[in-house]
User: What shape does this take?
Amino acid sequence: MRVRRVLVLTTVIMVLCAACSKNENQNNAVQTTQETADSADQGEQKEEAELSNANEEVTKDNFRSFPVSDESIFTVIETDDGVEIKSCKRDIQDKVIVVPETIGGKKVVGIGFGAFTEIGSVEAIVLPDSVERLGDGAFTGCENLKYVYLGTGLKSTGDATFNYCNALKEIDLPEGMTTLNGRIAGRCSGLEIITVPATVTEIKTGIISAHEFEGVIRTPAGSEAEKYAMEHGLNVENY
Assistant: This one.
């Protein structure tokens, strides 16, 4: 009798173990299938985003809503307060470059000398609010660049920031910016408006040469930018 009970108990345990193993295998299979599906979805979403960035029409109303650009298109150098973008791939086909707020886990605080020079495909550039400074010639020669958002954290620009950006019609410097270290644009045949806030109190070289610019400097009355514009024969519009 005792042997029979042992045999019965052993059989029950074996059945239960088999059932548990089956359930575990089924759960693992379901999880693997779900992970595969999720990975496929992410791949499709990334491909769709890249396709959209390359083909979607870029307008003043939508350029800031494009997906953030992949970190891999940028090279950076470390600074005391984060990283500065040293360069961007010149052969990308993206129409819009949306700079991420962090690269490699570190805050993007600057755009270096000539970092975005002559990227022919780009029609719009969006900077994060973490960027505080622009180097000389940061966007020079982006001949198809139409729109730019400089963020809210920008404090200073270098010289010739937008030289030869012939499709650019407007440059809007953000409130809180303090210093212009050089003329912001030259040989920009389509440029119509440069907005300079009253917070800009130091104009080291100038805003733009009068012989290169027939547009308007938009700035508050009494600002340093208004004084500069009047002294150098530039058109002024107060806001």
Remarks:
- Residues 1-55 form one domain.
- The longest strand covers residues 82-88.
- Helices lie at 2-55, 224-231.
- The chain has a mean pLDDT of 86.
